[in-house]
Amino acid sequence: MISNADIAKILREISxxxxxxxxxxxxxxxxxxxxxxxxxxxxxxxxxxxxxxxALKKIPGVGESIAEKIEEFIExxxxxxxxxxxxxxxxxxxxxxxxxxxxxxxxxxxxxKLGIKNLKDLDKAIAxxxxxxxxxxxxxxxxxxxxxxxxxxxxxxxMPVAYAVPLVEEIRARLLKVKGVKTVVAAGxxxxxxxxxxxxxxxxxxxxxxRVTDCFTSMPEVAQILASGExxxxxxxxxxxxxxxxxxxxxxxxxALNYFTGSKDHNVALREIAIGxxxxxxxxxxxxxxxxxxxxxxxxxxxxxxxxYIPPELRENTGEIELARKGKLPEILQYGDVLGDLQVQTxxxxxxxxxxxxxEAAMKLGRKYIAITDHTKSxxxxxxxxxxxxxxxxxxxxxxxxxLSQAGHDFRVLKGTECDILKDGRLDLPDSLLAELDVVGVSxxxxxxxxxxxxxxxxxxxxxxxxxxxxxxxxxxLIGKREGYQVDIDEIIRHAKATATVLEINAFPERSxxxxxxxxxxxxxxxxxxxxxxxxHMDHLSFIEYGISQARRGWATKRDIINAWPFxxxxxxxxxx
Length: 577
Ligand code: DGT
Ligand code: CA
Ligand code: CA
Ligand code: ZN
Prior knowledge:
Blueprint: H1 4-20, H2 26-38, H3 44-57, H4 64-76, H5 80-88, H6 93-96, H7 104-114, H8 119-127, H9 138-155, E1 159-160, H10 161-176, E2 183-186, H11 188-192, E3 196-197, E4 200-205, H12 209-217, E5 222-228, E6 232-237, E7 242-248, H13 253-261, H14 264-276, E8 280-282, E9 285-288, E10 291-294, H15 298-304, H16 320-326, E11 340-344, H17 355-364, E12 369-372, H18 387-406, E13 412-420, H19 431-434, E14 439-443, H20 452-464, E15 470-471, H21 489-499, E16 502-506, H22 516-525, E17 529-532, H23 544-553, H24 567-576
The protein binds 2'-deoxyguanosine-5'-triphosphate, calcium ion (CA) (2 copies) and zinc ion.
Zinc ion is lined by residues 418, 443, 445, 472-473.
């Protein structure tokens, strides 16, 4: 079985190999096809098996030649063209690409000149001081690569939780078909909705554990069986991700779910509370002596321990247990509370779809509004908008709103921008134009390497612009790829309060900034936040859910999140500030 992610990965590698050859258009074509496949909601393999190559050609960005490659991959598990490219430059692309600043051409140069094939080789070359003397690289590159290597090794193999969802759902569906299986849930950090997960922890209720274990260990994604016991097994998938499986009987379900959801620190604290009541808590239940007093549901366990139910996102032992004991847990934001999306890109710049397509897709998800926030002119790579094109877009949006309301839709498209913050903290569009927009997001896309003082000053100046409504993706990190730029985030949060600037919880999986801790600081100070998808494709609009998870992990309530407010209230708030 071949997943969309497998196809996207190989197409992307082809794109990168072609990029090494200084090919003009082909790399982008493969990249676009990879993006399209990745964001399909249905399996490309299934589409192919029912509709043949023609079904593949219907995928946006997939023409004859790429469709043939995908067909070959589905049929044979290989692509000859890829093998030829790889033979020419036999490097571990997916490894090397994790280093910030290492693009296809540089990878090729490092291979040609120093024979660097993977991160280990790169590490050695740096240690031997070879990069600094290399033409086109120099000492600055060497320092940068060194930092990149340190970052990658500390990030390990963790994956943004969003990207594990399709896989988990697929495995769940499969295990649910096994005879005797009632429930399959993913526990662990996946259920707590951490930004990234280290592995997947599955819990299955069944009295026939052997059948479940057999099905699990023989899945096509499995590369290696790490452990296989009666009720406990563990595998490594071909992608490198580990999956743990526990099979438990019905009466222990709540206890097992609680135990395997964690976090470990939360569990330890619960166990101590149990001991205080003369009880014993483990993965099978809550016991008084040998008598089971609770265990079938998590609610039973919390209630028996005289605690209110604690949602998984809060279970980090950072104060939630004390509040649960007093019945004073915050009423955190609910899934479904976010009414609209305040950061959406379109094909006016680097997005894949038109304004109308994005609006229709958002309506389907039940959203009440979206703000179109395309990039601005100084972001040349994204074809950013200048004043003239932005005005043109604003007219199109006005016309679209008239059309939507005539058609009876309770939906609005807001005029907005993701306005670049220039190096000195001024904005990339004139104030007169910003004043006419509904939503002004400001963000940093350049000069990442300023000192902490300079960067903080730059951002503060942008936030102080009276038209700046929201500071988008406020730390600029890309999970697993780069740390954020150097900025004094505590100072930014205080400045947000002083200037009534909203800080964004960016729901795009690699971004996920603000972090849960920073969200909590905002909540404590009364700084307002928005949860935005940062969609560049229709299928990205649903990322909002991960932003909600992050907000919940940061203890945010409806009061803290402006796009959870009624539209009029939010709109007035944006206009005022
Ligand atoms: P991860 O996988 O690194 O993203 O984080 P988790 O939290 O999923 O950790 P994992 O997979 O090692 O273990 C899953 C859960 O099992 C964990 O959240 C709590 C529970 N657990 C694991 N080891 C221990 C332990 O030594 N003591 C206790 N009380 N619970 C544990
Ligand atoms: Ca885990
Ligand atoms: Ca685990
Ligand atoms: Zn951006």
